């Protein structure tokens, strides 16, 4: 009898610290959330609303604020390269590190571990709200 065919799925996973929530997903079936680049850290977080994940995104994921600032703890090589507009915007972020990215612009290509900075985590619990909110239409999407 021939051996059974085994298929090994190597699905990317993203771990969000400090909540220590890990989501593993098939990129081909992510829903288009309309916030951030398709497959970005923000897009992934919004694809799992029941996980308890919350990544603030005051500008709707349009690279126009810094509320989606995250720090990459592992797997930086598994993210899309930083574009100039992200770099320019990120310069305005609080607590900037050399491992900082904007969650709405960093597209996941493999396993990553990220940390949401404390000031960002506290933003919502302290009554923060989007200034621009959903009033900004999502960017045109190309998949
Ligand atoms: S959500 Fe505003 S820059 Fe990412």
Main traits of this protein?
alpha+beta; binds FE2/S2 (inorganic) cluster; five-stranded mixed beta sheet; 143 residues; disordered C terminus; Ubiquitin-like (UB roll)
Count of domains: 1
> Residue share in helices?
10-25%
Radius of gyration: 16 Å
The overall pLDDT, averaged over residues, is 85
| Uncertain spans | 124-143
* Number of strand elements: 5
Give the overall shape.
elongated
In the CATH hierarchy, the third-tier topology is known as: Ubiquitin-like (UB roll)
Provide the β-strand percentage band: 15-25%
CATH homologous superfamily title: Beta-grasp domain
Structural class: alpha+beta
Which ligands accompany this protein? Answer: FE2/S2 (inorganic) cluster
Distance between the termini: 43 Å
CATH class, anyone?
A: Alpha Beta
CATH architecture label: Roll
- What pattern of helices and strands is seen along the backbone? EEHEHEEH
Characterize the main sheet: 5 strands, mixed
Strand order of the main beta sheet, please? 2-1-5-3-4
Number of DSSP helical runs: 3
Lay out the secondary structure.
Layout: E1 13-17, E2 21-24, H1 41-47, E3 69-74, H2 84-90, E4 100-102, E5 112-115, H3 118-125
Parallel strand pairs: 1-5
Antiparallel strand pairs: 1-2, 3-4, 3-5
The protein binds FE2/S2 (inorganic) cluster.
Residues 57-59, 61, 63-68, 89, 102-104 line the site of FE2/S2 (inorganic) cluster.
Account of the protein in words:
The chain is an alpha+beta fold. The chain has one domain (13-122): Roll (Ubiquitin-like (UB roll)), CATH 3.10.20. Helices cover 15% and strands 15% of the residues. The chain contains three helices and five strands, in the order ββαβαββα. Strands 2-1-5-3-4 form a five-stranded mixed sheet. A hairpin with a 3-residue loop joins strand 1 and strand 2 (21-24). The radius of gyration is 16 Å and the shape is elongated. The termini are far apart. The model is unreliable at 124-143 (pLDDT under 50).
């Amino acid at each position: 009898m021939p051996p059974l065919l085994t298929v090994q799925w190597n699905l990317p996973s993203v771990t969000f610290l400090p909540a220590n929530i890990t989501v593993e997903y098939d990129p081909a079936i992510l829903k288009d959330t309309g916030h951030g680049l398709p497959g970005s850290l923000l897009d992934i977080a919004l694809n799992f609303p029941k996980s308890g994940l919350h990544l603030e995104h005051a500008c709707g994921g349009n690279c126009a604020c810094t509320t989606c600032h995250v720090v990459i703890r592992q797997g930086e090589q598994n993210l899309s390269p930083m574009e100039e507009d992200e770099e320019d915007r990120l310069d305005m972020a609080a607590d900037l590190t050399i491992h900082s990215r904007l969650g709405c612009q960093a597209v996941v290509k493999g396993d990553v571990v990220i940390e949401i900075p404390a000031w960002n985590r506290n933003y919502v619990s302290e009554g923060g709200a989007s200034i621009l909110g959903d009033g900004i239409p999502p960017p045109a999407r190309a998949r």
